[in-house]
Amino acid sequence: MADPATISPATLLKDELDIVIPTIRNLDFLEMWRPFFQPYHLIIVQDGDPSKAIKVPEGFDYELYNRNDINRILGPKASCISFKDSACRCFGYMVSKKKYIYTIDDDCFVAKDPSGKDINALEQHIKNLLSPSTPFFFNTLYDPYRAGADFVRGYPFSLREGVPTAVSHGLWLNIPDYDAPTQLVKPLERNTRYVDAVMTIPKGTLFPMCGMNLAFDRELIGPAMYFGLMGDGQPIGRYDDMWAGWCTKVICDHLGWGVKTGLPYIWHSKGSNPFVNLRKEYKGIYWQEELIPFFQSVTLPKDCTSVQKCYIEIANQVKAKLGKVDDYFNKLADAMVTWIEAWDELNPSGASKSSDLPNGPSK
Length: 363
What we know:
Strand content: 5-15%
Number of domains: 1
CATH architecture: Alpha-Beta Complex
Radius of gyration: 20 Å
């Protein structure tokens, strides 16, 4: 595998990566990202009122999908895509035909490193995805494949080749990704600490995945990146990316792939209202004390050899075990199955590009 310190990621993956953005507003934030994003194709998933026109700055190559498009393309299966919630972004993962996905929120801007240089977040994510992960044995110098680093004394040589990286989880400066109770008691707290490190999350360890600065290998793990049923009509919100992260990590552990976290940083410009967040989160804050032990105990049989099989098995276990916690989890488990069915319909072997979709996107 190429040394990630010497590759030219922007050139290498120009035609192999889509940028997925969920939004309810004009995408003026793209101007700041223009030097980094303009070579890439954007998939914009418009949430909320489909009659509202969303403006995209000139010069970007993009597809724009609204709720009417989702309903036309998926038909009855559109019920698995959340409404009035950023979880709608996973529709963009489904319709993409690229190998890699980068997703970012529209209140995220270009951050600066400690030297004052603009951070090319997309380039760092690509470097993370193109270098191996080491989930089976922790390297105390963090990423051993980075220039100037290596495996430390005592690291088994049999594990130094690493495994494919499925997910690159980036971080944020300024507004931290806190839950509502923490926001309420620390309203003025800002993250100013830039930690120059990337690490592989060890096998068997869960993490709270944030979807605002996230990249993944769609060909490897795409079908597991379902952001659940959240938002309008559902009893819970703001757990969409975490649900996807828990499912994804369990599957990566089972199939032998890696998840990285750390660099790159973006600048998170505005925090959401903690009182609104509390209303969305309060059941999740209660339920997560059941959810985490559930995911920690999930085991997948050996015949689960694909992401889809793994995901359906998790859905079955959600219904069997979490359905007792609340009927919502029965509904979520059914949506998980619907999601896989819709994914496979839109991504049969030999599918070429998203323009093949029935009725196409809005533009």
